[in-house]
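Note to self: the last two entries modelled the partners one at a time, which told us nothing about the interface. This time every component goes in together.
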Amino acid sequence: MNTVAVYNIKGGVGKTSTAVNLAYLAACEGRRTLLWDLDPQAAATYIFRVRPRVKGGGERIVRARRPIDAAIKGTDFDRLDLLPADFTYRHMDLMLDRTKRPTQRLHRVLEPLSDEYDLVILDCPPSVSLVSENVLRVADTVLSPLIPTVLSVRTLDQLTDFVATVKKRPRLLGFFSMVDRRKRLHRDLVEQLPAQRSDIATAAIPGLSLIEQMAVQRAPVPHYAPRSLASRCYQRLYVEALDGRPRIDSAEPGNDH
Amino acid sequence: MEPGELLFGAATDPDQVSAALASRYELQIEPPTSAHWTCLDTADWRLHNAGMTLRDARRGRGRRLLLSHGAPELLSAPAPARHWPRRVETLPASPVRERIAPAVGVRALLPLAEVDVRSLELRVLDDEAKTRVRVRVDQQRLAGHQHAALPLRVVVAPLRGYERDAQRCAELLGATVTPIGDTNTAVSAAFAAAGHTPGQPTVPAVQLDPGAPTVESLAAVLRRWIDIIDSVRPGVLADIDIEYLHDMRTAIRATRSMLRIAGDLLPPMHAARFAEEFAWLGRLTTPMRDLDVWLLEFAALGDTKVGAELADLTPLHEHLGTQRRRALRDLRAGLTSPRGSALSGEWRTALRQIAGSDLPGPSTRVVAAEHARVAYRRIVRAAVRVTDQTHPDELHLLRRRCKRMRYLLDGYASVYPRGPHRDVLAALKQLQDCLGDIQDVDVQRRSLAELASTLQRRGASADTILAIGAMRERILQRDAAARRTMAHRLARFCGPVTRDHVVQLQAAPE
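The predicted structure of the combined assembly is written out below.
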């Protein structure tokens, strides 16, 4: 099981749209995929039309009082399941703090699912907290969306330092998100930085209203606009960040029955 | 039944299903799609008997192997590019192959029914327009000239976390549209429509009248064995899998054995002539079977220490492969020769004459019991001399006596009382397995020496000869293990309990 965290200290940089679209593409490719919406704002949960509620709240999951698989919901797409957000996740730091080995808790929670899923994607809340420490410990890859500004790139450096504090370091890969090609700074950074830094992906996600439409369509972009520029960009990111195969066709995963 | 599968009468309209669900739920109906299924199983229904169904499902350009195996979810894997029949080891590695391989063994998967399917997918939505349950309605027709309508198949598939919704949908459908009240799957219904009886042998067991004249019953038993020979003949010629030849050889040996035991009941001309003909047929099949056993031995080496030296054994494997191709060519030539082609027809004619002859004699039950008693006594006599040092040739004679008794018990099964018959057969089978192992080892040991010297003459490397030596060592270990077990099994078979059961074979069947 490969675990990928989509994480940034900052909010509003495209974490949820990235997590949702990459999870969908992985399921299309045939990977058994679980998306865990760790953000109490529950945006990914909303997009998949699932009720943002976990029986017993985050406490029961974190303290392993209830098997995690009982909380998992199937999405409308084959091979793609969701562990929904719950408003109690806003206190997850406190919940984790009350457990033994609080920085390894998410690892232990996800361990029983290792045979069931090929890929787990964590849609993380924006913060530096005990939750993020857990995420860094459980993730094999941390994907960090960056708005192409100097300050955002500085954030990646801070994140690199943060990752360095973890014993088993995950691979950290930044990528530019919400790129506005009309802005010179955006163009320059997107063209130059990936060539200079191996921790920034060459694939970049444009800032398009089609992506914002996800909350209206309540579906991943490649589902409702499979041949759009946005879909192609997410596909490139998927190939580069998750070793995915380029899609041969745009067919959705079908119902095998 | 597959998980969530409901079957309704062939005349059921799919609209009845959607109307029943729409009366209570918000539905989204997807455009209809078409598919083609090739329903697969082995010739002896190994998947069916293991509670599995396997389909090669073609939808558009995509093809998937779909396996139902009693778990809540289907297993699926890419289907192989080539057509059926296929042996399991030639399928691409996948969870489906992993799951079916132990059940299928050496048999090939055959396309036993072809089905055209028109599918309608209904999505049961909640108030957020989220799909909670998928309902697939499959209108099925047997493909080909039969084109029979098959039951309407409905699969109610819950999405994870919404199992209760699926249960409610299934209950609603069960209450409003009456399902077929049996436990058949859509696949087994397709098999039945294609003229097969899942789980049953191609040639059913013969039901004899215990009071009927022996000659009449003997003819029926012999007719069943020639039916088996004829039914497996195409599989042998096409080399679909090695069990066709094995079944053919069993039926040949059974026929020969019965001619030897009860040949005096037949007109002497028939008995002598056909004994010779079936002996010829048996000899024709022997080289190929011996090579099949060898290659099976190779396949079993995979997990052993010798398996690590398989690369060194490649020349031996290739040599055996070449010999097998030659043996297959000779076998095909023999079976399709005028002699091979005519045997079945002439034997059937003779059997009709025998069955129609009004020869006086005792009833089948009396003769069958007497034959069993004599066969048992002969085994016990031979067994007295057996020790753990007995030469394989002598054990081979004992094994042949066991086989003769086995064919009797198989042929006349329906005239023996069930309980004693089952017990005697069980003890006999155990003994036969053990003796079979010892004989296989002996044959392989001898031919391994010949093969080693042949390969040495052809310049095989020292590593190859050493690997053959390791293989021989492994074979000899099997011999020792089989001999240790033999003493115990012989004691059981020759002991008072089995002896009493043999005596009880004279009783009338229940």
